[in-house]
What does this fold into?
Amino acid sequence: MAMELRALILLLLCFPGLQGQSPEVQRRREGDALYFECPYTAQTEGWQTKFWCFQKDGRCQEVVSTYSEHEKKSKDGRIKIEDKATNKTVFISMTDLKAEDSGTYFCAIYPSYNQYMPLRVVTLNVFKELLKWELDSLAVQWPNSNSMLWCWREQALVEGQTSSRRSEIQSLQDTASSKYAQGTSTVTMEKLQTQDSGVYWCAVGSEHTQIMEVVLSVFKRTQQHTAEELGNISVQCHYKIAAYGAASKAWCKKEEGNTCNVLVTTSSEPPADPSTAREGVRIQDDTQQGIVTISMEQLQVQDSGVYWCALQERSGLLRMEEVTLSVSKALTPGGFPDTEGKSHKILLGDSLEPSSNGNTFIILSVVLLILLLLALVTSIALGVRHYKLLRRTGHREAEDTSDRPEGTAQPGSAGKRESSQDDSQRSADINLDVQSQPSPQDPLYCNVEPSQAHRNPQHVEYAVIAFSQSPRSGRE
It folds into this structure.
């Protein structure tokens, strides 16, 4: 920002017409576009040529102008200018922005020889956005440069105070290298880690003139694994063979702070702290495929935590991948977690051994199945028996009905009425109704209902019938 402020002050001193304007800053990502408007007044309308200038050393370096159709756009076609006299406005468009487009620009008119009248000024900051994985490398280039390219991290607060640029340049030089060749300056950073994320400024020359902003984001590779107590796991971590094939690899467990205790390593040297070594942990480095394989056996709940596959260097550990491990309590055969280190016993007696839980469950299942089958067989047998009884009862009733003579009334049932053409000649129909079993000495009467008798009967006949025994017993 200091470089931008100095450039703006210099521009205002060279062009007094801009002193009444407030500085304007536009920030864009590489590949974005900038659309800018420069209004002008009626007094300047007669000056036909309008310019879009890049401010360099206090002067106008013409980018595009309205002087001719050929000059209305840049050579690569990314920057264009258009003068709309009806609106008294000059329109500027800059597309597919690049980091080298950063700088201070202004619209201007050309009233006389080698003189420019600025209309509006803007400071354009085009930044590079770089997304990287840990252990990746990056290279920032600045073409057409006649001097070394320097980059430093944006000033940050350290313990409540702003760190100096010198210390930040020095800290970056510890992890980066720069070189100049064939008119191009290059800054390279290798073995990136998440803590390298941030905003960087690049400058050229002995005065570190700012020319570029780089926004770097470094992401870590992660894995998640789950296992049961006394189980085993196997973890694989990949790396670039050309870059890290010969480097030593390590497996460490993350502790509080930034400490990662090494459990096993491919180096011939043992871990710095032998007490951190753990039995059942092995590491194997396949340099042909670029894979590190770590195995852990007989896991315990306390093994849960965060681990690193890491490069082991003299300066310390560089994380390759982060692994989160979660170890849960093992389940007993009954399906309950063994929270006290002992198998739970089902509530059938405390004397049962843990292995009997499964057998008891099987026995109970078999007994319930047998009871269910017995209930099903019993239900079927009862249904068949009931069906046979109903069928037998139906046959008896049919036989009784077929044995009765026509016209004979049985005790307890209504007599059957018979009628024919000859009945019309009789004085009345005779109904025989026996409601109960008569005794042998009781007579049997036959009554005629009034509705059944003729109004003027010519003959009336009476009959008294007596049985020596009941009708059914006589038939039998």
Summary: Residues 356-403 form the longest helix (48 residues).
